[in-house]
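In response to a reviewer's request, we include the raw inputs and outputs for one of the modeled complexes. The two entities were modeled together in a single run.
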Amino acid sequence: MVNILYIEDDKEIGEWVYESLKEHGFNITWFQSGEGIEKQLSKTDLVILDVMLPGLDGFSIGKRIKKARDIPILMLSARTAIDDKVEGLSFADDYLTKPFHMEELLARIEVLLRRYNKHEKVLQLKHLTIHMKDMLIINNETSEEIQLTGKQYQIFQYFLRHLNQILTKEQLYEGVWGEPYIEGDKTLMVHIRYLREKIEKDPANPEIIETIRGIGYRVRK
Amino acid sequence: MKFFKSLQAKYMLIVITALFFVYILFLATSIAVFNINGHEELETAKIEREWHREANAIENPSMITELFEHWTNRYPDASMFWINEKGRLTAHHNLKEDYPPIWDASYTAKFIKERYDNDPFTVIAFVGEEQKHGFLVYEIPRDKLEQDYVETNSQFLSISVPLGIILFIFVSYLFFRKIRKRLVNLQDAMEIRDNDGLPIAIPVKKEDEIGSLEHAFNHMVAELRKSRKREQEEEQLRKELIANLSHDIRTPLTKIRAHSYTLQKETLSEQAQESIKNMNESINKMDTLIENLMSYTLLHANKFEFKSEDVDVVRLLRTSIASWYPLFEKNGFEIDVQLEQFKEKEWNIDPIWMERIFDNLFQNVIRHAADGKYIGLRTESTDEYDALIIADRGKGMNASSTEKGAGIGLAIVDMMIKTMNLDWKIDSTNNGTTIKILRYKSFEKAV
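The model returned the following structure tokens for the whole complex.
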């Protein structure tokens, strides 16, 4: 079970988030200030942190947590100024402003857990079963393992880490190759074509790696 | 300020020196020449004295011949002769002129008058102690003698005066050049700007008028900094005030949302469900409104930080629509993206502002043009401009939805676009709205 540490001083909002996350199967511990959280940290998978807190503010607490342990931190604040977001994102992994929709909070928690590999060890994607830890890809229909080359593997992993997000060509290229994308470069397209040939049932009508016309690609759960 | 340190004092010194300069030169030269030459007896005086002494010492005529020989050794160019008590030219040596053999009183007087302080230099001395044996005349052209003091002095003056004047002009030139140089340096120093756009203090080297000008300037710089600091503090205060205000409004909004969420899970009548839905929409609207109001206030007071850089704008738009895609998709929109790279792909803009503009425009499409179920993104390039086009098929802005509040969002877009030296055009009909964000290729157009 995923352990979430939640720090929020407002009782009404705190209760709402606490109850909702519990309902969604998270093991949540709620603190009303940063006091006493140290003992919790070692068994925490993700931190949700308010900014305006009694005593130490959320930014300071967040920085301390990050220093102690590299766990995902999601700032949840009614402070929406760009300065605040910039400061928050200097250490936190995400910044969600109040008032928020519970669905959005849940979605962002999912993304963070996935990014930190704290989540599902096994991912079901259409006809594929993917064991995240060792990136073992099994075709459910043939029960055979699908072997990817280095670059295909990197691209696919990048998609999985950004599940449900639309990735532009530039983002993908720069994320995988680590160098600036040059307009008109076909390398990425070629790699994706080969990748599709390996993982798609029908590479001509891809279901796993969707093409978003004019924008990029997406892998959806 | 000490008077003697001042430029005025220096200037007065130069003027006074100028007024008396020639006199001072004369005086100084004369003193100098006198000190070098003047202490020694002049040759003429020496000749005169010795001639008189030796003439007086003569006791018999044979001594006169000896005297002549003895003097000829010393002065080969000199002429000497003896006029005896009877006025007869008795003995002579090395005569240059024809003198009459007999000298009467009138000729003697004429000779003396002629030779007095003239050339040749002439000394007349009586012979013997009693002066009864006529007189001895010694004459020598002056140019054979050592020059006398006055001549030497005037020679020195002809050199020292022009030299002195040139020196004086040079010193004055140096004086004014130095002042000029300091003023130019001062001007340059005043034009230097620090990172924050303020001038920086100047080191004061001299305590004169320019020095006090520099002091005054430094004082002004300090005041400027102080007022800038005050301004920044006020700005910070304002920002915090607005941030806190928006925070304080958002917190209860979040609570309302929390409660509506909890309520939603109860079994409710259709009407109650509907009112919860409306409540949520109102929360959204209010959230946007607070955000926009905050931005608008900051923008309007020029307190919104603007950091421009070269940005690949098409890429920015693509990334932006990528993050909005799921929402459009969820609302059943047709998403038509046809973005071509511009020739000049980088625009000098603030990427955060530009994203904000896109967000505002996309939000408007979802809020006010959801009926059209269409969003199109295109690029357009002409000789005059490059443009990003965002089109929808809603009912247009005039007729548009019952929801108001798009105004402030668009006002923000307008302000941001104008600040970034871009332009935009809205074409809104009942069949849809097309918004073009334009960047003119020639600078004049943009102005």
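As requested, we also summarize the result in words. The longest strand of chain B covers residues 432-440. Chain B touches chain A at residues 239, 242-243, 246-248, 250-251, 253-259, 261-262, 283, 287, 290-291, 294, 305, 315, 318-319, 321-323, 325-326, 335-339, 341, 345, 352, 377 (CB under 8 Å).
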